[in-house]
Amino acid sequence: FEQVLALNPEHVEAPYRLANLLSNSFEGQEVAAGAMFEKAIARNADNADAHYQYAVLQDEYFDKPDIALAHYKKTIALDPQHPYAHYDLAVLYHGLEDMENAKTAYEQASIINSEVKTPQNDAAFLGAPLEFNTPPEGIIRDDAFEGGNIIVEEEVLDEAPLAAEEEAFLEEEIVLEVEAPEEVEIPVTNVLPEVEEVAILQSDIKRLEDLVLKNQNMLMLAQQNLTTLTEEEIPVQPRVDKVVVITGATSGIGRATADLFAEAGYRLVLTGRRGERLEELQAHYKESYGTDVLTRTFDVRDLNAVKDMVGSLDETWQNIDLLINNAGLAKGYAPIHEGDIEDWEVMIDTNIKGLLYMTRAVSPYMVKRESGQIINVCSSAGHEVYPNGNVYCATKYAVDALTKSMRLDLHKHNIRVSQVSPGHVEETEFALTRFDGDAERAKIYEDFQPLKASDVAETIFFLATRPPHVNVQDVILFGTQQASNLVTDRSGRA
Hints:
The chain is built from 19 helices and eleven strands. It is α/β, with parallel strands linked by helices.
């Protein structure tokens, strides 16, 4: 499916199929699956199951009940007889303590799928008395996990011996260490409080194996008892079919942002002025995550180099989904009448013209595809000036203005434009560059706790992974001890 999307990025069905694979067959790929479901919904808004699967992720993994609620409702609107959506909606309402809607949804679920109607669920949703105090010995139906919910039937397990082929499969594929008790107690998630732990008899291991494959939470538990995988058997990180360009990726916020996108499996184009660092990052991401990475060494102030970079990408890489204009710097810290004009030129050329050059080179491809996102790294200095920050502040005010105007120009082409505006950030080369390599003057963070580069990177990743209908326009980000550019508690690190 990745190859299908590489050959035909506009394929309608492939994102949905790939999202299903990532969600159900690869552990730890919820973020990638969510992004792919978003793409699937954008291409086919009438795909009821895409809405349902996306709702389950938002509900169970991202803890976003409002988003889940909207997509469960959309699922039901598209497919009123969906076998699981009504019940999951009832469970969600129950968790939100909206018992009236929970009852209505449960009653509808019971009509559509009689298997959800159990004494425990009746007690939870309808207030009916339980017919017994503890769950009976029963089975967890395999098909009950299709919607991420557990349904207990009042059925006594058939303890007949397993078929020969089942025994052979168990001996070959799974090793579970079971201690003296006859039953293996499995902690079960997503069950109402009234439904307590469900015991699975040892003789029903085959069903347990099926459930483990279908429920990632149970898979994590079972893997503690499985034979340790050799390094060669560990699956390669699945790719996310999105191309991300990050400028200034060799250090600081750019490097931290590249770390997150590489780990998540995105295809990366990393740029910067220090080729050796870019090559080291490329090798590291390839070895650690199997990430596809291209590196380009150039200065964003050089318009011809920017054009050559974008022009050198082949067709599969030119379809850039996300441009992160991170490259920027501060040079000098002096009042306006003492400022160094060369420092001013460097800041203006990098922070403003470099951002413009990159955007001009990349955005036409996004416009052509009617899809994409641009995230500019601005600064709190683009919202509030401070003494001796004159030209640097001016360049960041320009970034803020450009971000707003870009958004007005590009929104009709379905392109999201946003920015993140951090205050003081350590783990970067910002202060060292501002003070021309003077390490002593660059020690400006020792008496308070500023943001870390990873904090800003996580915010950028958040902006990039919102649903297609959401655009966070600006995030102004400070450490707790910094109230504004002019007010910082420097009484020591909190």
